[in-house]
Amino acid sequence: MSAQKVAFVGLGVMGYPMAGHLAAAGHDVVVYNRTAARAGDWTAKHGGRSAPTPAQAATGRDIVFSCVGNDDDVRAVVLGESGILAGMESGAILVDHTTASATLARELATAGADKGVGVLDAPVSGGQAGAENGALTVMVGGTQDVFDRAKPAMDAYARAVTLMGGAGAGQLTKMVNQICIAGLLQGLSEGINFGIKAGLDIPTVVDVISKGAAGSWQMENRALTMAQDKFDFGFAVNWMRKDLTIVLEEAKNNGARVPTSALIDQFYAQIQDRGGARWDTSSLIHLLMHE
Predict the structure, then answer these.
(1) CA–CA separation, 41 vs 213, rounded Å?
(2) Contact 147, 140 (CB under 8 A)
(3) What DSSP designation does 168 have?
(4) Which of 253, 289, 283, 249 is nearest to 269 (CA)?
(5) In terms of Cα–Cα distance, which of 127, 131, 123, 135 is closest to 164?
(6) pLDDT tens-digit profile, the chain (291 residues)
(7) pTM
């Protein structure tokens, strides 16, 4: 893969290591972060340079990556006066890794087209560990030609990068991902709590059933900590509620029935009320173990 001039906007728990993998792959990386000290830490570790605004980070770059919090954050860093698009040149590519709405993805695609900029909505799955290990799964919406040009760079931090369809398809696929994860975690919570009440040895139970049809990533990576009442790590409840809100809004638009997701969203609201806003999403079991 030939080195490219890239920028990365948003150096949170995901963006920081993702940008690091781009630098390690030999790309010329400029970074921007709302908290400048974080960008300074990144350049001290990985080289490259930081820019004072998203527009300046994007100037002269072949590909600009963004990974921020929500729809409003994306609009601020992409569409504002000093936003990413203000600095991009015709022929460049914007890859937004934020988990956001499909409506926003289409909005960005239209805004990019007006400037001759290719836009991909590319939410990721795999969590902080996946980002740090360069093993993320990337679900992409956009056109084939833009995807083909951007994929080699995304391969630096991903184990799978797949074009799912046109603008918004990446975000819609991530919604399916979150629906499935929420359901798995609720089922796992009920199963583990049942096993504890039944007097079973949970590590042995998990070892046995994880080898059968009930097996999942959540079971292998979260079941034992769930049984131990440990949640101070992983994907925060606040972020899952944000994602499920996006799911529920989109379901209103397309007519899909998601009753379980709606119920689990309310369970997560109860976790927030218990002070667990930053707990891992596996904390659903807390509602069962501590009634």
Answers:
(1) 44
(2) yes
(3) T
(4) 283
(5) 123
(6) 589 999 999 999 999 999 999 999 999 999 999 999 999 999 999 999 999 999 999 999 999 999 999 999 999 999 999 999 999 999 999 999 999 999 999 999 999 999 999 999 999 999 999 999 999 999 999 999 999 999 999 999 999 999 999 999 999 999 999 999 999 999 999 999 999 999 999 999 999 999 999 999 999 999 999 999 999 999 999 999 999 999 999 999 999 999 999 999 999 999 999 999 999 999 999 999 998
(7) 0.96
User: What domains, with CATH codes, occur in the chain?
Assistant: 5-166 (3.40.50.720), 172-289 (1.10.1040.10)
Relative to beta strand 63-66, strand 49-50 is unpaired
* Cα–Cα dist 211/207, whole Å: 7
**Set 5, 174, 211, 252: catalytic member:** 174
Q: How many helical (H) and strand (E) elements, i.e. helices and strands, does the chain have? A: 14, 9
- Give me Rg for the CA atoms of the chain: 20
Report how far residue 214's alpha carbon sits from residue 205's, in angstroms, rounded to the nearest whole number. Answer: 11
258 in helix, strand or coil? Answer: coil
Question: Would residue 174 show up in a list of annotated catalytic residues for this protein?
Answer: yes
CB distance 202 to 196 below 8 Å: yes
Dist CA 91 CA 5 (whole Å)? 13
